[in-house]
Amino acid sequence: MNTEPIVLDPTVAAFTEDQQVSDLGTTHFIGIGGAGMSVLAEMLHEQGVNVTGSDRERNAKTERLEALGIQVAIGQRADNVRGASTVVYSSAIKPDNPEIVAAAAQGSHIVHRSDILALLMNHHDAVAVAGAHGKTTTSSLLSHILVHAGTGDLADPSYAIGGTIQGPDGQTLDGGHAGTGRILVAEADESDGSFAKYQPAIAIITNAEADHLDHYGTPERYCEAFVTYASHARGHIVMTADDPGALDVLRGLDDSVMHRTVIYTTHSAQMVLDAVAQAAGAAIVTITSESEQAGDGEERFTIDMPAALTGEAHAIPVSLKIPGIHNARNATAAIIAATLLGMDPDAAAQAAGSFLGASRRFQVRGCEKQVTVVDDYAHHPTEITALLNAARRRYPDAVIRVLFQPHLFSRTKFFAREFAEALALADDVIVTGIYPAREKQEDFPDITAQTIVDAAKGIDHEPADWIRAVDDMHTAALMMAMRAHHGDVVFTVGAGDITAMGPVLLHALEAHRENCGD
Q1: Rounded Cα–Cα distance for residues 318 and 298 (Å)
Q2: Residue partners of 423: CB distance under 8 A and separation at least 6
Q3: What's residue 42's pLDDT?
Q4: What CA–CA distance (Å, rounded) separates 493 from 491?
Q5: pTM to 2 decimals?
Q6: What is the pLDDT of residue 134?
């Protein structure tokens, strides 16, 4: 009997470059109903692989997979992996999972989900999107552009996005699709270092502000991971120069990589060159004339493309339905990538203008008693700052109230002060209990919602009691509904299950329902 401990290391590549999808054999996904896993399972199924899976409970994704003919077991048991040649896990799965234990005992090839994505990238012209913020929006935008404006082999792309997309008339579109075209658009998750495996045709870096220090330990190691990711791109690197972390990544690129890099920025090309002298080897795209009309929320700007990309210098006007200068950056990255793939940049910009946003990104959930409720996935201080700045521009006369659920004890520990400073852009804040995800409270006994409130002491803000901690989010939502007045905007903010409080807020306000007006 094998008594060796089972080690799951997502940073170690499971396949060589010459291996094919056809080499996988019967492939079982543990947690197949997850956003990142389900699309990979579907793509393998579309390519003729015998796919099975399991999950703790049914959801819309497991039902879709079953409708395609994929066998899905509810509950995770050793019997589920019997006969599987390859067993796929995500970073949420631990070595003592019964299916992992059984897979190891029978000699299955145990691989991380990133290994399957890397294998699929070998069969497509892949665009991988990495960054501390903006991955989902940028990959969703590029997929939307290709779906609506792509022709020939740019049409019907495959995409693997860690979320859903806001469709027309309130419809929610799935974040994964196994298309027939040559392009695969995928989020490249940097949280566990696994994105270093990817060798995409185009690598996008939306920013590189230090995060996931529970894994990397230091900002320097985090930066090094992005330099490695960029160096693995087979073609172009598309990246911002608008945050200090990204500038550090640029400084770490060697000349051979820099000559394949397209830098986009809201600053001047000269400012980029002053900060990173070796950027002279890159193409620099500038974002100019940026503005947002208060009320309608349309984000307007111009992308100044250099002749190196489009044959001659070209100014491209863009008008987005999603607010904020951060989304101007995200859209610029997507439009540049579409151009590099062979699309007309004006057509790409026009298609971007009909994008309504990834789900949980400035998503208006409803309005009751003339109080608007908006949901957003922001879970890092920089994301919250961008969200609340966009909120101020869209709702310049409103009182902005925030129901914030921190995501991860470690992130709260590392960035408590930064969270407090970002939340201070709102008028009224309730911080709820921390969403643990993969972490445990006992490992961080002193870290709670009160940690952020304590960090806010000393911030000059009116009124003085602008922030408080209420551990139970349902109680917090009811309190916030009672505090809200006509014309206010309430945001539910965080990457956990705080999104469920949108309907709770609306229901609490409904007792005094009034029309929102035009």
Answers
A1: 10
A2: 384, 388, 402, 404, 429, 431, 452, 456, 467
A3: 86
A4: 6
A5: 0.79
A6: 87
As given in the structure block, the two tokens for residue 412 are: 């709260």
Q: Strands, E, within 267-422: which ranges?
A: 283-292, 299-305, 314-320, 363-368, 371-376, 400-404
Cα distances (angstroms) measured from residue 458 to each of 389, 393, 399, 454, 466: 22, 26, 22, 9, 12
Distance CA 383, CA 401 (A): 16
The C-alpha angle with vertex 462 and arms to 378 and 367, in degrees rounded to 5, equals 50
Amino acid present at 294: A
Length of the chain: 518
Residue of 53 and 60 predicted with greater confidence:
53
- CA atoms of 312 and 398, how far apart (whole Å): 44
- Residue 402 carries which side chain, given as an amino acid letter? V
Q: How far apart are the first and last CA of the chain?
A: 71
Question: Per-residue pLDDT averaged across 31-56, rounded?
Answer: 90
- Amino acid identity of 342? G
Structure tokens at 298: 């349309």
Q: Which of 61, 62, 99, 187 is catalytic?
A: 187
pLDDT of residue 517: 44
Distance CA(224)–CA(354), nearest Å, equals: 36
Q: What are phi and psi of 96, to 5 degrees?
A: -90, 5
Cα 67 to Cα 83: distance, rounded to the nearest angstrom: 22
Quickly count: other Cβ atoms within 10 Å of residue 415's Cβ: 22
Residue among 136, 261, 385, 451 flagged as catalytic: 136
* Active-site option among 135, 209, 286, 492: 135
Parallel, antiparallel, or unpaired: how do β-strands 489-493 and 183-187 relate?
unpaired
Assign 3 a pLDDT band (cuts: 50, 70, 90). low
Could you say which DSSP state residue 399 is in? P
Residue 57 annotated among the catalytic residues of the structure: no
Q: Which residues pair with 400 in a beta bridge?
A: 489
- Predicted pLDDT of residue 297: 65
Is 368 an annotated catalytic residue?
Answer: no
Per the annotation, the verdict on 4 as an active-site residue is no
